[in-house]
Design the sequence.
């Protein structure tokens, strides 16, 4: 038996993945269970909590069955979570008192509007922007509009309670709530007051490499160790340990994270600052930028009948020319550095020559351009450009997308060997918790990129294409704000 074999559960937006990961980072078994997201009006997105729990049980049980059939016996369970999604639930029974309000849900925008006068104070304390994306506005909205029963937490706390009985979260997830004092790495009484949250209802914050308890949810009793929010898990798995190292995960959204180091520096350019991880009491911080709709934009194309699925993207994408079509992926608002939750997506520059191929390419370039803008914003905060970008996630199967990304960034793009870096990061934290590794560098398996994409256009062309995208994004924001 491999002492480092871990069942890593990655509970995501559109489904739950479960991997049985060996100490060398190789995957002994993998399973996935889908999860439905329910639109509610123009701005709401909800998840049935029991469906979420069922997806965890189904994926984990299937992966364990395959691993055990191959002679593997995991020694721990690790959990990564989708971040800012919240629900109300009863601590005594674990019973949900509400739907899970997805990180994509924008119905708490009025809460943010009420607190606009405190935006700078909130930014200074938390490192985050005052935006419906984060958990605290959703918590306040849920309390006002849905229920006063139970406690309201992020989904990881509820899942861990069901697994172990513990009432905990980790610093990285807590730093996504708008309730954490970033300097103290502790719940902020002032932020709790502003959002109307009772500090006694917030979970205990434990290190990312802590042992939480034990569970029999998947069969024989196993320790639960290594908990983390999804994007920070991927940052760790891809070995972004030194300041300035960056990764982008292309999933439902696209998320660019850049390691900062031990200093909780605030962005001055429109990104957010949060905890990357706390290991043995030592905290590392990161910058974070978000594109809310990446894979979701491809899902939108599928819903319109433009593509049958993401596997068609490269076959359908139009030729690599400086086309006139420009797509701004603001289908659920624009995040960093614009912070325009009411913005709506746009597809401009259409002509009689526009066809499916040009639309598909415009969508892929729009995603890549948005990420490139985030990278340029991070470079301003760092005082130097990124040297390369490490990437993972389902959309990295699109070579067209990744070539566009390298072109617009003007730096190499290295593809992680698996789209499941999030689960690998959680498994690495479990190894640290169990004492099977001494530090982050030894916990993370070494990897080499399966593909590297080098810039294929000139810096001048890349600058022109990005400038065109910025103009289109600016027009979207101006329209939302009612400007001429």
Sequence:
């Amino acid at each position: 038996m491999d002492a480092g074999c871990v069942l890593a559960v990655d509970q995501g937006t559109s489904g739950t993945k479960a991997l049985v990961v060996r100490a060398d980072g190789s995957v002994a078994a993998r399973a996935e269970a889908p999860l439905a997201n329910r639109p509610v009006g123009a701005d709401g997105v909800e998840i049935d909590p029991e469906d979420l729990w069922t997806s965890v049980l189904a994926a984990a049980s299937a992966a364990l069955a395959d691993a055990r059939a191959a002679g593997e016996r995991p020694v721990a369970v690790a959990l990564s979570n989708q971040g800012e999604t919240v629900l109300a639930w009863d601590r005594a029974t674990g019973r949900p008192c509400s739907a899970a309000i997805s990180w994509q849900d924008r119905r708490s925008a009025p809460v943010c509007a009420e607190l606009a006068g405190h935006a700078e104070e909130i930014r200074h304390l938390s490192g985050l922007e005052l935006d419906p994306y984060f958990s605290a506005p959703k918590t306040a909205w849920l309390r006002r509009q849905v229920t006063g029963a139970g406690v309201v937490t992020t989904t990881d706390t509820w899942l861990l309670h069901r697994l172990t009985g513990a009432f905990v979260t980790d610093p990285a997830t807590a730093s996504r709530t708008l309730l954490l004092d970033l300097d103290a790495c502790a719940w902020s009484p002032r932020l709790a007051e502003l959002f109307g949250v009772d500090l006694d209802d917030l979970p205990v914050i434990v290190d990312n490499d802590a042992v939480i308890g034990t569970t029999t949810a998947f069969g024989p009793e196993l320790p639960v160790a290594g908990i983390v929010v999804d994007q920070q898990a991927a940052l760790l798995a891809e070995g972004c340990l030194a300041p300035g190292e960056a990764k982008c995960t292309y999933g439902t959204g696209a998320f660019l994270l850049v390691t900062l180091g031990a200093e909780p520096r605030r962005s001055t350019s429109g990104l957010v600052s949060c905890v990357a991880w706390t290991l043995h009491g030592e905290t590392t911080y990161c910058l974070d930028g978000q594109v809310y709709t990446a894979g979701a934009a491809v899902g939108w194309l599928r819903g319109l009948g433009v593509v049958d699925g993401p596997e068609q993207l490269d076959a359908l994408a139009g030729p690599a020319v400086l086309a006139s079509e420009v797509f701004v992926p603001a289908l659920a608002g624009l995040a960093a550095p614009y912070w325009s939750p009411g913005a709506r997506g746009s597809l401009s520059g259409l002509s009689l020559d526009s066809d499916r191929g040009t639309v598909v390419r415009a969508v892929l370039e729009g995603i890549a351009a948005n990420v490139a803008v985030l990278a340029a914003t991070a470079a301003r905060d760092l005082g130097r450009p990124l040297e390369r970008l490490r990437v993972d996630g389902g959309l990295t199967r699109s070579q067209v997308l990744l070539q566009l990304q390298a072109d617009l960034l003007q730096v190499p793009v290295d593809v992680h060997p698996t789209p499941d870096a999030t689960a690998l990061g959680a498994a690495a934290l479990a190894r640290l918790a169990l004492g099977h590794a001494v530090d982050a560098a030894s916990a993370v398996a070494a990897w080499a990129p399966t593909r590297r994409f080098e810039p294929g256009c000139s810096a001048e062309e890349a600058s022109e294409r990005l400038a065109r995208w910025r103009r289109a994004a600016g027009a979207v924001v101006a329209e939302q704000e009612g400007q001429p």
In short: The chain has two domains: 6-238, 290-415+454-480.
